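Quick start: what a row looks like.
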Amino acid sequence: MPRNIYDEDHEAMRASAREFVARTLAPRAEEMIQLKSIPRDIWAEAGKQGFFGFDIPEEFGGAGVDDYRFNAIVAEEMSRFNAATSSCFGIHSDVCPPYIVDLGTAEQQQRWLPGMASGELICAIAMTEPSGGSDLAALKTTAVRDGDSWVLNGSKTFITNGYQADLVIVAARTDPSKGAKGITLFMVERGMEGFNNGRKLDKVGMDESDTAELFFDNVRVPDENRLGEEGMGFIAMMQRLPQERIGAAVSNVAHAKAILEETIQYAKDRKAFGQPIGAFQHNKFLMAELVTKIEVAEAYVDDCVAAHAEGKLSAVDAAKAKWWSSQVQNDVLDQCVQLHGGYGFMNEYRVARAWRDARVTKIWAGSNEIMKELIGRDLGF
């Protein structure tokens, strides 16, 4: 089926992203795996190509296009390369900028957005805590007012870009008596005394992604680094999670689709019992099912992307896209490993790494169980 949501300008951006992958990312794939992060010069090159500035106004160095389809195009191409790069770039360019654009003062925008657009200032968002998981309203990190500053204490975990981050949007409890209404957002900057980026976490997959623990030990954050109104942090996060979730869905489908295409070619080339393994009825039927699953998921996600570009995507529909795409992704990649046989278990094959990488997508951006809870509530339960 043809995809109808992208026009010539979007496809030109796809070509640019694809060239960036081939020229800049692919030759350094192994280096990123060994470093467990994306080198700074690659971030700078991505910024130079304009991949980080779609949500950032032109006066701050961005494109200011106000068309989420450009974000989605780049996410697709990065995901076709690997899931980790798409995740790191997506947090920096899709998830974080809207907070500063929508909630930041003019001084804050001038201070941080140009560096984010150029890739010089790597950004992360710190919601999840060791004891909280998906329960954002129960976070324990605190910020206590002290004159013109706030004293921040606590920790965060599983933070994408956390090890390299120059800027971190941190959710902290400023009024313990108000529950979700007592949470405020702060911009914590590298070098602030008491702020420790922690260590790179040793993950099952997403080797290229710099994921870290963050620690805050009496970090003095000036009030000028408070993002938005005091006590409005939880609402701000809830309002912006749909963009994170539709971005995850775009990446999930594109990632699985790329590996499935490689698997189909493998099934044509690999011979067993005198014929291509894809010619066996079981495998032929299986691949027919996998292709259909991907295309049906892609069609729904495309509709969500189009809705989000028009400002009409609901939190519930974003939740549907997130959980379904991650489930399809994992189902498809599991079968792709099986079709590769023993080679599917070897890290030198992309299918093996993709299979490992995909498992976390059913957990992050709100676990699939939380997504179903949101959908169930919308049904009146």
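That is the whole record. The radius of gyration is 21 Å. Strands lie at 123-126, 142-146, 149-160, 167-173, 183-189, 195-196, 211-222, 226-227, 271-272, 275-276.
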